[in-house]
């Protein structure tokens, strides 16, 4: 059991939360490129030097927001997958969780999966949180493959793509055919494309509301992967 936090630690956590909440409001109003520690300090009634004790730079604040967002969508997807009892139902649940989270947090979604923020280079600390969603998706495929519930697909892959996919397979499930990895990445990128088109209004006037189209696309993606159930 961890020791209870001191009053100073609780106060620091509360101020940190206030800063990140204000930063998310700035994201919604001005976008990540315009994120300003000085503007946040003014909003919170703090002097800039006090805020810098929590986040010494804009990039460190951006990193905190990115890690929080990756962990939030990752947790949503992992919890959704746990509700499915077949590989295909798990895929449906994971895809729906991504869309639901994105609709509820469009500006944070754009921070993660939109245009890069000028001048910002994501540090190593973001890798593990960023991996939660793709690892969860590949976990569905790995479990389906091990249970004999992954349909075989024909089609040639280039040596380069085979090598790339084989390296990923070696890390998560030695023996998993490289084409299984590639098909999953195809489906996952299509999923984010569908979500991104909806969020940016690209489906208005065509597939609007986007729910039925999204559900249909998710089923086609499951076919691409080869998931049964």
Number of helices: 10
Radius of gyration from the alpha-carbon trace, in angstroms: 20 Å
Average the pLDDT over all residues and give the rounded result. 91
Spell out the CATH superfamily of the largest domain: Tetracycline Repressor, domain 2
Distance between the termini: 41 Å
The appropriate CATH architecture of the largest domain is Orthogonal Bundle
General form: elongated
CATH topology of the largest domain: Tetracycline Repressor, domain 2
- Give the SSE order as H and E letters: HHHHHHHHHH
Number of domains: 2
Helix content: 55-70%
> Strand-residue fraction?
under 5%
Identify the CATH class of the largest domain: Mainly Alpha
Report the uncertain regions: none
Give the tally of β-strands: 0
Strand count, sense and barrel status of the largest sheet are: none
Please identify the structural class as seen in this structure: mainly alpha
Spell out the blueprint of helices and strands.
Elements lengths: L6 H24 L6 H8 L3 H4 L6 H24 L5 H18 L1 H8 L13 H20 L12 H14 L5 H22 L11 H15 L4
Characterization of this structure:
There is one protein chain. 69% of the residues lie in helices and 0% in strands. It is an all-alpha fold. It folds into two domains: 1-56, Arc Repressor Mutant, subunit A (Orthogonal Bundle); 58-225, Tetracycline Repressor, domain 2. The longest helix is centred in the first third of the chain and has 24 residues, at 7-30. It is elongated and about 60 Å long. The model has no long low-confidence stretch (mean pLDDT 91).
């Amino acid at each position: 059991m961890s020791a209870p936090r001191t009053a100073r630690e609780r106060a620091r956590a509360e101020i940190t939360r206030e800063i990140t909440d204000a930063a998310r409001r700035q994201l919604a109003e001005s976008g990540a490129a315009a994120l300003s520690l000085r503007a946040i300090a003014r909003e919170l009634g703090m002097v800039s030097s006090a805020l810098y004790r929590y986040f010494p730079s804009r990039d460190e604040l951006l990193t905190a927001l990115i890690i929080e967002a990756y962990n939030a969508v990752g947790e949503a997807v992992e919890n959704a997958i746990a509700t499915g009892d077949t590989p295909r139902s798990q895929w449906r649940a994971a895809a729906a969780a991504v869309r639901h989270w994105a609709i509820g947090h469009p500006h944070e979604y754009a921070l993660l999966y939109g245009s890069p923020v000028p001048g910002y280079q994501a540090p190593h600390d973001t890798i593990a949180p960023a991996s939660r969603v793709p690892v969860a998706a590949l976990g569905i495929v790995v479990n389906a493959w091990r249970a004999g519930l992954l349909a075989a697909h024909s089609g040639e892959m280039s040596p380069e793509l085979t090598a790339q996919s084989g390296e990923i397979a070696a890390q998560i499930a030695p023996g998993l055919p490289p084409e299984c990895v590639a098909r999953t990445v195809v489906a996952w990128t299509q999923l984010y494309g569908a979500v991104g088109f909806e969020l940016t209004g690209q489906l208005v006037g065509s597939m609007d509301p986007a729910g039925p189209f999204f559900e249909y696309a998710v089923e086609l993606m499951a076919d691409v992967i080869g998931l049964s159930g």
